[in-house]
Specification:
By secondary structure, this protein is an all-alpha fold. It contains 16 helices and three strands. The chain has helices at 32-38, 41-50, 56-68, 74-81, 90-103, 113-137, 152-161, 167-180, 187-196, 202-213, 221-232, 235-247, 267-280, 284-301, 307-317, 325-346; strands spanning 18-21, 24-27, 30-31. Helix 3 (56-68) packs across helix 6 (113-137). The structure holds acetyl coenzyme *A and oxaloacetate ion.
Length: 371
């Protein structure tokens, strides 16, 4: 028996949700380029959960259902208020709040398909409320309810900032949500599938996935990209700073990918949005720095920028606090986690690989007082 470190190259399941073939990403067979240019995030959620794009009346009904499920129990808001918000990371708060949401859902442990779909809708709807409520409470502001006439993307920015966003902001944010929605068997999605393959419930699966997304080698990288750009400070300092990091064997956040070797097809959209939005907000230095870093790493390490790299300067230009970047990833990716959870239930088998034993053998037990 031999093992593959990090399960690289191992095909662990069949899935009809998204595919990455020859550096091309599709959701249910639709090219990500097409979806990023044309679709709303609501359409993409519907697509991932139903394996088809909605008709207009189906889409309208779905949007209404989402908005009408965005409320969060007062007890959870009160719980958020009880933390020391100067030290709690919003991903930790989100992880706990999602777990708590399960305590307020009388169907949490009802395992039939219809109930699981209803829970999926509730979770997708409530996660943006938790993230925006956390961000507002920590600034001493009250959480805001969504507006029926706004899209999912617009409502998120409205609930975060308390004012209706500009069209260009909504367009950029919607595109970012579409681009982050699903990504085959990434670490957090795999985590969700492993969890629910024990026939544990949807809330457990999503709580586990949030825990995996939080790490800096996965979704947590976007916040760290912005920390790196802030630390570098100027376009002139970009290459010297990166050289120093590489000398110190530090990883450059937002660079590299387990699957893509030639380039992440999502990055070009985020790069363009970063160019536009940083220019519009007079912060082009972040885009210019990012381009220099991307080119340098490509040339010297052969590594491409991943989805987290330019999303950092995009969210920064939208005025979003840096530690809210990874929760925003969760606001989008929960759509993919839920699609995978529903797919796992529909054709379940316990996920239980083997480990190659590398420890000592043949040891003899000695009583504690003789050791
Ligand atoms: C949404 C997402 O999850 S996208 C990924 C987000 N994560 C990041 O951006 C963090 C930075 N990137 C990384 O850590 C990695 O590229 C990962 C985790 C994304 C992929 O990891 P793996 O497939 O395991 O690649 P691995 O870590 O083995 O890297 C292969 C080689 O490239 C190097 N390398 C990979 N990424 C980087 C990086 N960002 N900076 C510098 N060197 C890197 C490794 O040090 C290694 O070099 P070596 O062979 O000389 O030891
Ligand atoms: O697929 C991966 O390994 C990481 C990634 O890009 C994602 O989750 O979007």
């Amino acid at each position: 028996m031999s093992s593959t470190k990090g399960l690289e190259g191992i095909t662990a399941t069949e899935s009809s949700i998204s595919s990455i073939i020859d550096d091309k990403l599709t959701y249910v067979g639709y090219d990500i380029d097409d979806l990023a240019e044309n679709s709303s995030f609501e359409e993409v959620i519907y697509l991932l959960w139903n394996q088809k794009l909605p008709k207009l009346d189906e889409l309208n009904e779905f949007k209404t259902e989402l908005i009408s499920n965005m409320d969060v129990p007062k007890e959870i808001i009160d719980h958020l208020k009880s933390y020391d918000l100067s030290t709690v990371h919003p991903m930790a708060a989100l992880r706990t709040a999602v777990s708590m949401l399960g305590l307020f859902d009388s169907e949490a442990d009802v395992m039939d398909e219809a109930a699981n779909k209803r829970k999926a809708l509730r979770l997708q709807a409530k996660i943006p409320t938790v993230v925006t409520a956390f961000a507002r409470i920590r600034k001493g502001e009250d959480p805001i309810s969504p507006k029926n006439e706004l899209s999912f993307a617009a409502n998120f920015l409205y609930m975060l900032n308390g004012k209706e966003p500009e069209d260009i902001e909504v367009e950029a944010f919607n595109k970012a949500l579409v681009l982050h929605a699903d990504h085959e068997l990434n670490a957090s999605t795999f985590t969700a599938r492993v969890c629910v393959a024990t026939l544990s419930d949807v809330y457990s699966g999503v709580t586990a996935a949030i825990s995996a997304l939080k790490g800096p080698l996965h979704g947590g990288a976007n916040e760290r990209v912005m920390a790196m750009l802030t630390e570098i400070g100027s376009v002139e300092n970009a290459i010297p700073a990166i050289e120093k990091k590489l000398e110190n064997k530090e990883k450059i956040m937002g660079m590299g990918h387990r699957v893509y070797r030639n380039g992440d097809p999502r990055a070009k959209f985020l790069r363009e949005m970063s160019r536009e939005l940083t220019e519009l907000t007079g912060q082009s230095k972040y885009y210019d720095m990012s381009v220099k870093i991307e080119e340098y790493i490509k040339e010297n390490k052969g590594l491409p920028a991943n989805v987290d790299f330019y999303s950092a300067s995009v969210y920064h230009s939208l005025g979003i606090e840096h530690d809210i970047f990874t929760p925003i990833f969760a606001v989008s990716r929960v759509s993919g986690w839920l699609a995978h959870i529903l797919e796992q239930y529909s054709n379940n088998r316990l996920i239980r690989p083997r480990a190659e034993y590398a420890g000592p053998k043949g040891q003899t037990y000695t009583p504690v007082e003789e050791r």
